[in-house]
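User: For my dataset I need records formatted as: sequence, then structure tokens, nothing else. Please produce one.
Assistant:
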Amino acid sequence: MKSFNSMLDNLQKLIGEVKNTTQEVIFSTDGMLQVTKRASHISREVVHTYICYLSCLLLLVSSNHLETYSCIRDSND
């Protein structure tokens, strides 16, 4: 009977370790997901800013109006 109880105790310890490890993995994965979302957001902002900059530059070149330069200057502030 002692052997069975010992095996049961060991099993319960292992289950506890699995639960702890699972929680650590979930926490770590959630952290990586948040970092990935932030990086994605920053990348979208960079692309959006670059597209706006190029659009303003194309307007400036195609219209030959120097006042169009203000949209480029303002987007960099």
